[in-house]
Amino acid sequence: MKSALKSVLLALAAAALPAAASAHPAIGDAAGFGHGFAHPISGLDHVLAMVMVGVFAFQLGGRATWLVPTTFVLVMSFGGALGAAGIDVPFVELGIALSVVVLGAIVALDVKAPLAAALGIVGLVAIFHGHAHGAEMPENAAGAAYAAGFMIATALLHGAGLALGYIIGRAGGRQGAFVARAAGGIAAISGVGILAGLI
Question: Signal peptide location in the record (predicted)?
Answer without folding.
Answer: 1-23
